[in-house]
Design brief:
The chain has 3 domains: 112 residues, 2-Layer Sandwich (Chitobiase, domain 2), CATH 3.30.379; 340 residues, Glycosidases (TIM Barrel); 121 residues, Alpha-Beta Complex (Alpha-d-glucuronidase, C-terminal Domain), CATH 3.90.1330.10. 34% of the residues lie in helices and 13% in strands. It has 20 helices and 20 strands. Helix 9 links the parallel strand 14 and strand 15. Helix 2 packs parallel to helix 3 and helix 13 crosses helix 14. The termini are far apart. The structure holds 4-O-methyl-alpha-D-glucopyranuronic acid.
Length: 665
């Protein structure tokens, strides 16, 4: 039986799967061949499209009718080594054929045709094989089941409530979750973690007595090839099991986990596994028992292994109660110091989930040295689609180019592999909520889409993916619309960088909620996030020779490149070095003049983007346009505030005037 396509609640934006995107497919004769639940998902998609656009959907071989324009088929043999998720695409003799060895592959092949639009059915095309590079392509939701007094329903969520949880329980109607699964599958994501990595008491129970609620969500996501994961607390044996300890080497603890995991698989046969934030920002972990992170991760891995599950163990471990007077501690060094010595000690079904930078999702950071230091460990790169530090979905900040730079970074230099090749998985903190536009700012949808597609192919050109998103979301648009959207989005990350913290120095945000400028907001805080600006200069000396030694955590050539201000790339200069304001950048400008210029430019670029968006009013759905327009007002207000606070702060500190004599307060 075909699985019906999810019906979106009234007023919810179809994002990158508007019905119109299925017109080319749905106006043809389409054969779906093969069996299995995901084939029924494909069948449902095709049936719906054909019913809407006048085509004909045939399941298996229709009697006497072999004249199909499109064939989507599952094969038993797999000469192209497609495995579960790959597919081939071919256009020959006027027929388009997608072949897959597994149901997920057929589903991804279907969405490939949708992306190609009419071209999938016009030009002859020799057989192409498509497979995902990393096997794990996941979004993590920092969703709380019960509204948290400080963090709300979704920690760092800027798109309304949770898609999964409401009033302290799983939502009763999961049709929207099904629709979410469909959107995720259409960009290649195959795993979702449904609750916050900060596991509070209510959420802890999802592992045991409330697993049924997770199972209901898993049922909604499964038809789109998505496995469900759960964030668990390391203290579960104590909190839920009543044991006196959660020591990972204690036999009773290990047995407790084995039993708990058995029960989870009883409820969710294809459960993906756990996500764990341990010994991090107050979460419990193995350190309390004098054990290592490998001991902790491997204990959970052992419980999951018999069932085919994976533990995602996060590397975000650092001292968040640092004394700002203590110059010997450098938060950037922490993940490497904790984890690099453990390389080779993690179980085969343990994945170390590493934030792409050493700090915390700032607008500019170097790539984490951990990603080049653990060749014998399975690694997942974690990025943040939710725009905690990048404008909170009130500002447009398309992060595709930033993620792409990290994924294309070669830790061993030119001849070595890219991060995207080293990683077994890519994970994004989701930017989605129950907002009618999914992501608050309608243009923030582009971040989730781009993430999914980069997770499938980490070396893809992000600008091509942006074009794909525009094409799908806005339909066969006049070139003027596509060009306007490109103009608004493609440079928006650099624009955001220009008007916020300069040259990689990071933070300068208001403490707690992290929105808006506060240059010294974290300067004397325990969180380890400093810029050290004084009257003479700014930046953090992380060199090996005179600084914290962080630069030496890289291999060659990067350790040397970052060690000296002469070779350090401009955009990371203040991350690695403390320099005088009149230090001359490779660009030829002084640091102080760069700060002034970029802040004026950043605001001008937002003004221009707002103007471009206003000019698209007749071409964009009115509700979507109005939401974007309202957010551009706020972005412009915010950008001006950033500009004026940063420029005034540095004028006052340095006493060096702007060479162009512009207004600084
Ligand atoms: C879920 C940052 C955020 C926290 C988040 C943490 C993490 O510190 O501000 O809200 O906690 O990262 O990644 O665990």
């Amino acid at each position: 039986m075909p699985l019906p396509v999810p019906v979106l609640p009234e007023g919810v934006d179809p994002a990158w799967l508007p019905p119109e995107a299925f017109r080319p497919l749905g106006s043809r004769r389409v054969l779906v061949r093969g069996s299995g639940p995901l084939v029924e998902t494909v069948h449902g998609e095709v049936a719906e499209a054909c019913a809407r656009f006048g085509g004909r959907a045939v399941r298996e071989d229709g009697p006497g009718d072999t004249e199909y324009d499109v064939v989507l088929e599952l094969t038993d043999d797999d000469p192209d080594r497609l495995e579960e998720e790959g597919y081939t695409y071919l256009r020959e003799d006027g027929r388009t054929t997608v072949t897959a060895a597994g149901g997920a592959g057929l589903l991804y092949g279907l969405f490939h045709l949708v992306r190609l639009d009419e071209t999938a059915f016009r030009r002859e095309r020799r057989k192409e094989a498509h497979r995902p590079t990393p096997a794990l392509r996941m979004v993590d939701h920092w969703d709380n089941v019960a509204v948290h007094p400080v963090m709300g329903q979704v920690e760092r969520g800027y798109a309304g409530g949770s898609l999964f949880w409401e009033d302290g329980r799983a939502r009763g109607d999961l049709e929207r979750v099904r629709a979410y699964g469909r959107l995720l599958a259409a960009c290649g994501i195959n795993a979702v973690a449904v609750n916050n990595v900060n596991v509070h008491e209510t959420e802890a129970h999802l592992l045991t007595d409330r697993i049924g609620e997770v199972a209901a969500i898993a049922d909604a996501l499964r038809p789109y090839g998505i496995r469900t994961h759960l964030s668990v607390t390391f203290a579960a044996p104590v909190v839920l099991g009543g044991l006196p300890t959660a020591d990972p080497l204690d036999e009773a603890v290990r047995e407790w986990w084995a039993g708990a995991v058995r029960d989870v698989y009883g409820a969710i046969g294809d459960f993906g596994g756990f996500v764990v934030k341990a010994d991090s920002e107050g979460q419990p972990g193995p350190f309390s028992y004098g054990r290592s992170h490998a001991d902790g991760a491997n204990m959970l891995a052992a419980a999951l292994a018999p069932h085919g599950g994976t533990v995602h163990w996060r590397a975000f471990v650092y001292n968040h109660t640092q004394d700002w007077r203590d110059r010997s501690t450098d938060r950037a060094r922490a993940a490497y110091e904790h984890f690099a010595p453990l390389d080779g000690e993690f179980a085969a079904n343990a994945v170390l989930q590493v934030k792409h930078g050493p700090m915390d999702f700032q607008v500019r950071e170097p790539v984490s040295p951990v990603l080049g230091a653990m060749p014998h460990t399975r690694l997942a790169v974690e990025v943040q689609a939710t725009q905690e530090y990048t404008g909170q979905q009130r500002h447009v900040c398309w992060l595709g180019p930033m993620w792409s730079e990290a994924l294309r970074f070669r830790p061993e230099g030119e001849r070595g592999p890219q991060v995207g090749e080293l990683a077994d998985g890519l994970v994004a903190v989701s930017n989605v909520g129950d907002d009618p536009f999914w992501t608050g700012h309608p243009l923030a949808q582009a971040n989730l889409y781009t993430f999914g597609r980069l997770a499938w192919q980490p070396d893809a050109d992000p600008h091509r993916l942006l074009d794909e998103w525009i094409g799908l979301t806005f339909g066969p648009a006049p070139e003027h619309l596509a060009a306007g959207l490109r103009a608004a989005l493609s440079g928006s990350w650099r624009t955001y960088e220009k008007y916020t913290a300069p040259l990689g120095v990071g933070f300068m945000v208001q403490p707690g909620h992290h929105y808006g400028p506060s240059v010294d907001g974290y300067e004397y805080s325990p969180w380890g996030t400093y810029h050290f600006a004084d009257r003479d200069g700014i930046g953090v000396d992380r060199s090996a020779a005179t600084g914290t030694g962080y630069a030496a955590q890289y291999g060659k050539p990067w350790a040397e490149v970052y060690e000296s201000p002469d070779t350090c790339p401009d955009e990371l200069l203040l991350f690695f070095h403390h320099v005088p304001y009149e230090h001359v950048l490779h660009s030829g400008k002084t640091v102080i003049q760069h700060i002034y210029d970029t802040h004026f430019e950043g605001v001008a670029e937002v003004e221009e983007a707002r103007r471009v968006w206003a000019g698209l009013a007749d071409l964009v759905d009115p509700a979507r346009h109005a939401r974007g327009a309202e957010r551009y007002e706020e972005q412009l207000r915010g950008a001006r505030e950033w500009r004026d606070q940063i420029n005034s702060y540095f004028l006052r500190k340095s006493g060096i005037p702007d060479r162009q004599g512009r207004r600084i307060y």
